[in-house]
Amino acid sequence: MKTPTLVLLIIFGSICIAQSKDNSNQFGVGVQVSTPIIGLSAIYKVTPAIGVQGILGFISTLKFYGLKGNYYFESGSPYKPYVFAMFGSASYKILDESESIFTFGAGGGAEYVSNNWGLSADIGYGSFKFDKINTSVSSIIVGAGIHYYIF
């Protein structure tokens, strides 16, 4: 599972380095929950309308590495509605059994930013399938996050 993490860090780092730091609330770190995963998150707003979010999540024996792209709509208020597309890699290890798979999702939500703190909530559709344990999930995903914007 070192490869997905390295790829995400390279993509995320390249985007951060390539952009200027003249907008406020561009880069934040925090916690993201997207059912059933909870994990650490970093979000970078490439422009006021486009954000990229990396998520490293876990629950019990399930691990998730994901990248989420957000498109923010200008609302003229601290509430910013957005749509998102997400993809990633999920893996598990139970006793001698392990598997890694591709996951994806899409949906919409809103973020509220005040005093460098961002609160977000979203709802969407996600899907994954583990062949070895014959488990497939395609359902509504509900998410929430809290981030502190460093710059």
Task: Offer a few descriptive terms.
151 residues, mainly beta, eight-stranded antiparallel beta barrel, Porin, 1 helix
Topology:
Blueprint: H1 2-18, E1 27-34, E2 37-45, E3 50-59, E4 62-72, E5 79-94, E6 97-114, E7 117-130, E8 135-149
Antiparallel strand pairs: 1-2, 1-8, 2-3, 3-4, 4-5, 5-6, 6-7, 7-8
Provide structural commentary:
- The chain has one helix at 2-18; strands spanning 27-34, 37-45, 50-59, 62-72, 79-94, 97-114, 117-130, 135-149.
- It is mainly beta.
- It has a single domain, classed as Beta Barrel (Porin), CATH 2.40.160.
- The longest helix is centred in the N-terminal third of the chain and has 17 residues, at 2-18.
- The chain is elongated and about 50 Å long.
- The chain starts with a helix and ends with a strand.
- The model has no long low-confidence stretch (mean pLDDT 86).
